[in-house]
Amino acid sequence: MWKKWFGKSSIRSNEKILNSQIDRARIPEHIAIIMDGNGRWAQKKGMPRTYGHSAGVEALRQIVRTASDIQVKILTVYAFSTENWKRPKEEVNFLMKLFSDFLDSEIDELDKNCVQIRFIGKIEELSSRLQSKIEKARTRTMKNQGLVLNLAVNYGGRAELKRAVQIIAQEVQSGKLYPEEIDEKTIQNCLYTADLPDPDLLIRPGGDFRISNFLLWQLAYTEFWSTSVHWPDFTPGHFIQAIVEFQQRERRFGGLKRRKDTDNIK
Ligand code: FPP
Q1: Phi and psi of 11, rounded to 5°?
Q2: CA 235 to CA 39: how far, in whole Å?
Q3: 84 in active site
Q4: How far apart are CA 182 and CA 172, in angstroms?
Q5: Residue 36 appears among annotated catalytic residues
């Protein structure tokens, strides 16, 4: 298992201590990651930005494997946003080739380890070659029962919401739905992530504190964890640290902090 993706265990000895602090019974079900900082990481080394993206694939491999090892159910990673087309053509082309090569080189290993690969975003706007690889990877792994690896490619939260509004408007126009019947479930059902729970934890490396048009609806009550470490330097140790800290937080979902029985509730 996971042979090609580094020997016996994804968790190295200095990470074992942190690993022992994880409460295995409360692993976040769905973790989302904004894989930021590839370009700055490469430039700091005097290398082109694309070098950072290649190194980012290696970091992704490690995190997928760790997530699978500790039985995270869903991992959603932001690989390319609807705004990333504004980057120089060479960088965009490089990224598209990287996604394509990733599918070619990793599909066997992912499939063998029961990973289910999914995609969210405007896949229909990608090259037909990439689209057909995406479709092949999706159908080949769709019955796998392990980690769901959700790759956000040409994804934008606003575009996703616009699409949802259009679907709902068409249903209203055709008489299948009355406007007063629209509730949050109606909207949820029209998102790319319709059948998935919202992320419990959002991890952002790279030092910024922004959502950057990622999962705008789904992140409403997600816990946010950020680090200044750039994505290529992000290790399973950082991932485990984020989970340990997540487990120490109290999620209230807009409610009140849990009180002791003796507290006088007014
Ligand atoms: C953001 O860093 C990263 C991206 C736009 C690309 C993410 C892609 C990878 C990590 C490659 C692996 C992905 C797959 C699915 C194979 P940035 O370029 O904005 O970095 P910067 O903020 O330092 O400029």
Answers
A1: -105, 110
A2: 17
A3: yes
A4: 9
A5: yes
Ligand 1 pocket list (CB less than 6 A): 35-40, 53, 56-57, 60, 79-80, 84, 95, 98-99, 102, 151, 206, 231
Whole-angstrom CA distances from 202 to 34, 64, 168 are 8, 15, 28
Q: What pLDDT, in 10s, does the model give residues 61-110?
A: 999 999 999 999 999 999 999 999 999 999 999 999 999 999 999 999 99
Q: Which atom of ligand 1 is nearest to the CA of 98?
A: 16
pLDDT digits (tens, 9 = 90+) for 222-243: 999 999 999 999 999 999 999 9
Instruction: Give the residue, by CA position, lying nearest to ligand 1 atom 7.
Output: 79
Q: In which residue are the tokens 């959002």 written?
A: 202
User: Could you give all domains of the chain from N- to C-terminal order, each with its CATH number?
Assistant: 26-157+198-248 (3.40.1180.10)
Using most ligand atoms within 8 A of CB, pick from 33, 34, 38, 231 the residue to mutate for ligand 1.
38
Quick check: 129 and 104 in contact, CB under 8 A? no
Distance 1 CA to ligand 1 centre (A): 27
Annotated catalytic residue within 14, 19, 38, 84: 84
Strand partners, 216: none
- For residue 143, list its beta bridge partners: none
In the predicted model, what is the mean pLDDT of residues 32-46? 98
Mean pLDDT, all residues of the chain: 93
